[in-house]
């Protein structure tokens, strides 16, 4: 049986949205294909005391962008639709998930524009549909109330465990998993 550890909902003093600064700091550091740090406390002291936040965020954004540019085939994705489907697994509530999604959408647009020069420059930029997923106890109301006004994507909520089936077969083009949720993925079955 899967154990559930949901974040505190809302925007109160002890909510995740008010207390996710550490996740902002570490999100880029641990994004490198599930790197595990042998001394996480020492690493965090270096991050917090070493002024690595800006470099870390830049590095994370560049790493995601580089992987998308090198490995994603936009032509295949858009062969049947002009919409790219993205999911954020374990989104919780707060700015971290929106920052990650914005970086991914920007990188996908760059990839499309780069690859489109080779394919057909008369096509319009694709639309983006993001599925924010978290446990059913997540505060999706707060999540949607805090969506960026100037976002360039459509947003939907998908409550449920990613240990279960959440989406139809072959319906997601790109999946992102936050630092905390990724730890839970290690317990997932081989079917994922």
TrEMBL record:
GO terms for molecular function: methyltransferase activity. It comes from the Eukaryota. Pfam families: Methyltransf_7 (PF03492). InterPro entries: MeTrfase_7, SAM-dependent_MTases_sf. Belongs to the methyltransferase superfamily. Type-7 methyltransferase family. This is Uncharacterized protein. It comes from Solanum commersonii. The lineage of its organism: Eukaryota, Viridiplantae, Streptophyta, Embryophyta, Tracheophyta.
